[in-house]
Design goal:
Number of domains: 2
Strand content: 5-15%
CATH topology of the largest domain: Glutathione S-transferase Yfyf (Class Pi), Chain A, domain 2
Shape: globular
Helix content: 40-55%
Strand order of the largest sheet: 2-1-3-4
Number of helices: 8
Bound molecules: L-gamma-glutamyl-S-(2-carboxyethyl)-L-cysteinylglycine
Distance between the termini: 21 Å
Length: about 200
């Protein structure tokens, strides 16, 4: 399997953390790309019309995206039900945590594109602030509900951990740990997992 990704992408990290947890990482060849919405990669677009990372190309040539579909595919490949609790509450909880973590990463990424990518004269401060407020509300909710986060890896805990790792990587100055001590403790434990250590974000 070939994965179009980027070592800075929290969505790409989510896929690789899942792969490490499932014992599948060495079956994936990673192709790193530098791209943005205004400087897309033709190689990625050839496999995914959205031009987004991560995109996985299977050995039969079929492409899978986005990170949710790829993670579910990997879980299936590893026998199923490993990262996705099968029963009742635990399942809906893990999937909803995945949605929260993905949403926090999307909001953080939109705030980053607005500052880093958009020409200065076109920047919209209220947009940045409201994207960051989504992240802030997510952090506040997680701090209050930290008992919902599994100590073991499932699709919910992996996604939230990748979102927090992305905040450290791109928004360190915002000091998300302040006011979120219980969440910070959970993250410190989770981040020590070999799967998280093997996928630390870096600039390409
Ligand atoms: O939107 C684009 O055209 C380029 N952006 C991406 O491909 C980002 C890279 S993170 N990926 C996504 O937005 C994927 C979201 C999707 N729902 C999923 O896979 O779950 C780059 C981070 C950074 O450079 O800071």
């Amino acid at each position: 399997m070939r994965l179009h990704s980027n070592p800075a992408s929290p969505f790409g990290r989510k896929v690789m953390v899942a792969a490490h947890e499932l014992g599948l990482a060495d079956r994936i060849t990673v192709d790193d790309h530098l791209l943005s919405p205004v400087e897309p990669s033709e190689a990625v677009i050839a496999d995914n019309p959205l031009g987004k990372l991560p995109t996985m190309v299977l050995d039969n040539g079929h492409a899978l995206y986005d990170s949710r579909v790829i993670c579910e595919y990997l879980d299936h490949l590893a026998g199923g039900g490993r990262l996705y609790p099968q029963a009742g509450d635990a399942r809906w909880r893990a999937l909803t945590l995945q949605a929260l973590g993905d949403g926090m990463m999307e909001a953080a990424l939109l705030a980053r594109y607005e500052t880093f990518l958009r020409p200065e004269e076109l920047r919209w401060q209220a947009w940045i602030e409201h994207q960051k407020l989504k992240v802030q509300r997510g952090l506040d909710w997680l701090e209050q509900n930290v008992d919902q986060l599994a100590e073991e890896a499932d699709i919910g805990s992996i996604t939230i951990a990748c979102a927090l790792g992305y905040l450290d990587f791109r928004f360190g100055a915002d000091k998300w740990r302040e006011g979120h001590a219980r969440l910070a403790d959970w993250f410190a434990r989770f981040e020590s997992r070999p799967s998280m250590q093997a996928t630390l974000p870096r600039q390409l």
